[in-house]
Amino acid sequence: MTGPVRRLTSAASPALSGTTLDGVSTMISGLTAVRAGLLDYQAAWDEQRRLHESVVAGEQGDTVLLLEHPSVYTAGKRTEPWDRPTDGTPVVDVDRGGKITWHGPGQLVGYPIVRLPDPVDVVAYVRRTEQMLIDVCAEFGLTAGRIEGRSGVWVPEDDRGPARKVAAIGIRVARGVTLHGFAINCDCDLGFYDRIVPCGIRDAGVTSLTAELGRPVTVTDVLPVVERRLSTLVAVTE
């Protein structure tokens, strides 16, 4: 997923039906997975909101954007002033849950725009998202899991150090349809996390598939594995 950073317009992406942001679309268990390449954060946010309106209105089915961002810090609604960079690095404030995090090259970001079944259960959706990412890690040989009281997917404490987050989750649900989503660190530069308190957590670290496995694991490697497991996001209804 490399190439020039793109900024979308409604003319360039009218409905993502048949033609996607870069011409690659896959239907998985009723979800449309769109490979959006390297995409400016604001452009992706605009596209999320456009898709959200379409899904809410019933004009389009559930869609998941899969992409990379140029380096950017985003701050959720619970971000504290002391979590932010102290060197003047710009931060984009967003309306998702959670605190501050980093997005950038070497990290696969997923934005599921999906309708949740009634009654809406946000916690269950977060757990499904975590399970999908745990299963992705397992496919590459990394044992990861949950930590009580903390969202995301973690490598447990071991002789290498304290618990380390390998995938982050931050979502919003409006009118029964999700926004924002997840990010899994593949082979990103972990130094970007040194400027912030990632997700507001001071007593744990951040890691990547590459760092944990001792071999290169790229976004290109992880992308098809995530696509195959997107069905985990869909609630099983009787």
Automatic annotation (TrEMBL):
InterPro entries linked to this entry: aa-tRNA-synth_II/BPL/LPL, BPL_LPL_catalytic, Octanoyltransferase, Octanoyltransferase_CS
Listed GO MF terms: lipoyl(octanoyl) transferase activity
Keyword Cell division: no
Subcellular location, principal: cytoplasm
Gene3D superfamilies: Bira Bifunctional Protein, Domain 2 (3.30.930.10)
Role of this protein: Catalyzes the transfer of endogenously produced octanoic acid from octanoyl-acyl-carrier-protein onto the lipoyl domains of lipoate-dependent enzymes. Lipoyl-ACP can also act as a substrate although octanoyl-ACP is likely to be the physiological substrate.
Record HAMAP family: LipB
Family recorded in the similarity comment: Belongs to the LipB family.
Protein's UniProt name: Octanoyltransferase
Organism of provenance: Micromonospora krabiensis
